Amino acid sequence: MPTYLEDFPRPEDGFYVLVTGANSGLGLGIGCRLIDEFLQTRPQSQELVLIITTRDKRKGDATIEQLQAHLQKACRQLERKVPGMSMVLQRRVHFRQEILDLTSLLSIQVLAKKLRDTTPKLHAVICNAGIGGWVDLYWGRAVWTVLTKAPSSLTWPTFKKSGVGWVTKPQLPAKKDGSRADEPPLGEVFCANFFGHYMLGHYLAPLLAAHSEDEQARGRLIWTSSLEGYTHSLNMKDMQSIASTEPYEASKRLTDIMALTSTLPSTAPSVDTYLDNITDTEKKNRPRIYLTHPGICGTSIFPLNIVLDFFMFSAFYVARWIGSQWHPVTAYKGAVSMVWIALAKQSLLDTMEERDGLGKWGSCTDRWGEERVERTEVEGWGFGGNLGQKMSKWYQRSPYAKDLTKENKAEFVKNGEVLWKEVEALRIDWEKRLEDAGVAIKMD
Ligand SMILES: NC(=O)c1ccc[n+]([C@@H]2O[C@H](COP(=O)([O-])OP(=O)(O)OC[C@H]3O[C@@H](n4cnc5c(N)ncnc54)[C@H](OP(=O)(O)O)[C@@H]3O)[C@@H](O)[C@H]2O)c1
């Protein structure tokens, strides 16, 4: 076992949550919101261990500083309600930072091994980090559709221009003679948004399976999808979307299909190996995959200059005021669905899923910015995989949505089966390549 120099917080009654890409946007919003909701809803005896990942230590330090400042502010506010509580509350939150680059399979293995060696368990892993892969806007279309089709055009935009053909840096080290090892390309957006988290989830399954104080509770792999996971964006013949003009949307479609088919009998053989063949026993619970999305929030996922940033935020607020439920706008509000899934009682989630099927849980708000979590329609799955499920008349539907039919549901399920098989095969293939190159990290 490698030696680690840091001192890791390991409170006995700890609630351990890992958040990837925590230094900006939604990731930071998730960290702040988790602190607030944890302190307000969990018993005084319980302590939160918030493990954040960033791509380098400087970003990690800055993030911890911001989270510390948020914690102090939250404690000052709670102190006004319950005097004398501030210090007690502050001691209930611990921070830890780690480095993770999701486009480097080795970086994922290194982090997973370290967590397995130093963390007693994980209650939730929030797979948040990601990239857009966009290079520009189609300006004419952007102006026209925003002026004529808002708020729909600001929720399901058709004017983002993607980079095409992006692949990650080589995963394998150069050979002794300096030449590059033979390796297949790995789509960059696919790897940052989907495959990297997929690998991480596999390695962390044993930590998520460890029993906690609530023996019913299952470790949760919480995925961050988007409203833009369209059927038309994903071509399963190019699963990594290397040739695609919509690799971001395709990666979110993969996320939706993977998560929503993860409990079906037809995907079980692949999901079993993925989850390390963990079944429910006296000592372990099989982890669960949950699907969320943050609605639309103003973050740096699409880098804009200060003037355009101002226009973006203004347009998002206008969209909300003219009736879009899908514009939480701020990252803190957008984090409501991920944090809710992380903290909700297992019995509540199980009951809702038994009644209405597996859902995609979205962050939304009313006109006044009051946030809530709502089931979101998915092409080929509807709201929970049940035919005939009705939506409220206020529900804002994607322009690409089609009513759920037996046929399109069967296709969705079939795609799930194919996807799980292919992505499991890809995981095993890359593990072997790393092993053959002598760089793989052994997990046990
Ligand atoms: N904003 C929205 O409206 C919206 C809507 C739907 C879904 N989402 C999803 O929400 C998630 C967060 O997005 P955001 O809007 O908060 O964007 P953001 O502000 O750009 O944050 C993305 C985070 O991911 C990290 N990241 C990027 N590539 C990475 C890699 N290869 N390895 C590790 N970390 C990496 C970034 O780190 P660096 O700072 O080092 O780049 C950053 O911390 C994404 O999955 C996105 O698809 C966002």
UniProtKB/TrEMBL annotation:
Classification of source organism: Eukaryota, Fungi, Dikarya, Ascomycota, Pezizomycotina
One Gene Ontology term of the molecular function aspect: 3-beta-hydroxysteroid 3-dehydrogenase (NADP+) activity
Similarity section: Belongs to the short-chain dehydrogenases/reductases (SDR) family. ERG27 subfamily.
GO CC annotations on file: endoplasmic reticulum membrane; lipid droplet; mitochondrial outer membrane
Keywords (A to Z) from UniProt: Lipid biosynthesis, Lipid metabolism, NADP, Oxidoreductase, Steroid biosynthesis
Gene3D superfamilies: NAD(P)-binding Rossmann-like Domain
Keyword Oxidoreductase: yes
Name listed for the protein in its UniProt record: 3-keto-steroid reductase
GO biological process assignments: ergosterol biosynthetic process
